[in-house]
Write a structure and sequence with these properties.
This protein has 96 residues and is mostly helical. The chain is 93% helix and 0% strand. It has one helix and no strands.
């Protein structure tokens, strides 16, 4: 039985494909190992970032609440002082 002349190049292509697939699998395995090693560091870093973000939002909410309280109390004091001066002025002009 005579050998087909195309078996050699096809075998070479199959071997090249197999080695490229094996190299890709090896790279993926290395990547997965790196991910497994660095998962704890990643989670700790992500947790720290998330914690800082939540603390920052809480500080902003507290600042916003404090500003609103000051604004309302300042407005009330302004109204009280206005009424006081208006009464004083009315008394001063009508009592004389």
């Amino acid at each position: 039985m005579a050998e087909c002349p195309y078996i050699g190049p096809e075998r070479r292509l199959i071997d090249q494909w197999r080695t490229s697939v094996e190299e890709r699998v090896e790279r993926m395995e290395n990547t997965l190992e790196c991910i497994k090693r660095n998962t704890d560091q990643f989670h700790n870093g992500y947790g720290d970032l998330l914690r800082e973000l939540l603390e920052s939002r809480a500080r902003k909410e507290k600042l916003k609440t404090a500003a609103m309280e000051r604004l309302v109390s300042g407005g009330i004091w302004g109204v009280v002082i206005f009424i006081g001066f208006a009464c004083w002025e009315w008394l001063r002009t009508h009592i004389r």
